[in-house]
Design brief:
heterodimer, A: about 160 residues, Alpha-Beta Plaits, 2 domains, B: about 525 residues, Ubiquitin-like (UB roll), Rossmann fold, 3 domains, seven-stranded mixed sheet, five-stranded mixed sheet, 16 helices, 22 strands, elongated
Amino acid sequence: MKGKVHGYGGKMTLGERLYLGEIFRGLGITIRHVIRNLLHTGDMPTVQYPEERRAYSPRFRGRHRLMKREDGTPRCVACMMCSTACPADCIHIVAEEHPDPAIEKAPASFEIDLLRCVYCGLCEEACPCDAIRMDTGIYDMAADSRAKFYVDKEFLLNNTTDGTR
Amino acid sequence: MVKLTIDGRELEFAAGTSLFEACRVARGEALPHFCYHPDLSVAGVCRLCQVEVEGMPKLTIACNTSVREGMVVHTRSERVRRAAQQILEMHLINHPVDCPICDQAGECGLQDQYMNYGLYESEVSISDKVNKAKVQVIGPRVVLDKERCVLCSRCVRFCDEVTRTGELGIFNRGDRAEIGVAPGRQLDNAYSLNTVDICPVGALTSLDFRFKKRVWLLRSTPSICHGCATGCNVRVDHEAGTVYRLKPRRNPAVNGSWMCDEGRDTYRELHAASRLSEPLLRRDGELRAATWPEAWAALAGAAGRELPPGAAVVSPRQSLEEIALFAHLAAALGVPAAAIGGGPREADRGEGDDLLRSADLAPNRAALGWLGLQEPAGADLAARVRAAKGAVLVYGADPAADAPGWREAVAGRTVIHLGTHRNATAEAADIVIPLSAWAERDGLFVNRQGRVQASRRAIARPGLAQEDWRFLADWLAAAGAAEVPASLPELRRWVAGRVTALAGVDLAVLPPEGLVPDAVAAGSGGES
């Protein structure tokens, strides 16, 4: 870009002090961009959110989900590794006895306070059963009360991404 | 004395000391072990505590070796380390390694040893592990997982040697060997949960504590059990104001490493629905919640209307300081000395046995005697209260439930109940003051041996409940008494000065095993 950059106490040239010339110069830049964008719509940097969405990396950490066993019950064994690892203290699990002695332990309740969550992914990493994942890609969450961000086991179990695995 | 060298350090031990204990002193930490336990016989089955003794061709297990003059022992050599690794690998062959669902995770011997002696890359295939029964309820309080067991036999030895009930045994051989209860029997002795404590792995877990809390989240406070007059040393395990379990703390002079199952249940009363969390005043015939200023006004009114209060009853469940201060307060309020006492005597009667459980369920009865307070039987107590005029102060006790004739004796009189729970006396009282339950404040207790032991505050008090001595001191000040202790240490000094048994004892520095005052040890002072 040409032209001087003025700091405090800098002196403007006569042309700059007349204002009008500079205003038309600025308008010209704007109009140039409008025309270029109209001719090359594909190169526009703006994303038409929410109709259009940017593709995120598969490693992007979105809203959590709980994985299921083949029979549909949660894979989680309520070992509390995730809630222990959680730096935001947002995972609250109550354990119960599972009727199958081979499984032994299961979550009676599994709640995440999404407003406290910092989406660090330590819970995924701590999980020994691959029961909690953050691969839903969901990042736009809106609700009209705080209570709705306090999500329970049922919500997390059915909180799947488009390509359900 | 025997002189020997361990890891290059020359040390002296009494003859007959086990090499295991000698190594514990020399190393500052125990050798790796599963089967050794200081309060059980030596089994020598886990083979983990092997050490190198110069002159011996093979490694030897320290637990089954006594110290000898001139022994030269190495506990940190490569040969010893390799042996521990190999033995640990063997222990892990058939272990399911299901730590995420195992309640022992976090306080597991196998996990701890693995951090030090793990092979990390085992040569044994995990596919052909021997499967055994899981989640077997073998008694009213204990769950057995046979896969996790390392066959250290501690639980079997405990039932054979300590309780002498012999419910458990090792069945089958080789890698099919497993712990089990004899057919048709249950692990249902009064000390069954000690097997869970001494189990170094997650094979035995407590039905009550199972899955309630991960152990690494718990904080521990050393305290004493308030279940009976034995005063077993315990650890109160709690998190965020909730107590989850009591575990015994080793004190050879009182309880060894054990405590009874009933004692472990005493934590429940701390969170009972009947726990008082605010002052209650009787209005229009019903107890209603009140604020502290209202409660103080009511106390002043009750005392003013019926001055002096006629009788004061204190429970032997309160601490030494509290009983002393309460007696002092009652006297300052004008209660005749003869009408201040504990009771009723027959309350707190339990079963008892010759091991730890005491037939006297009050943890501090000896303190009543030390403070010169009488303890009349129920009928006598009621008669004594009936004879006295004026308001009746009840602290901690529940005479309405325990003393026959109590209700008639106090009919139409103001009853002031200082306590922790909404018991029968509180229900019938006019003024109910919420104070601290046993895990919510510091206090000293005198057990059946005459041993003074400290109970420590583990959790916060609920709601508006107050610390006992502070409330009593405030009331003393309000009553215009001259001697009002300003802090707990000051109160303890004041108590020590009033009790002849405690002459010359500094209650601020109690040894970890508690203290039997010389005057008590020399005299007849209590059974032992």
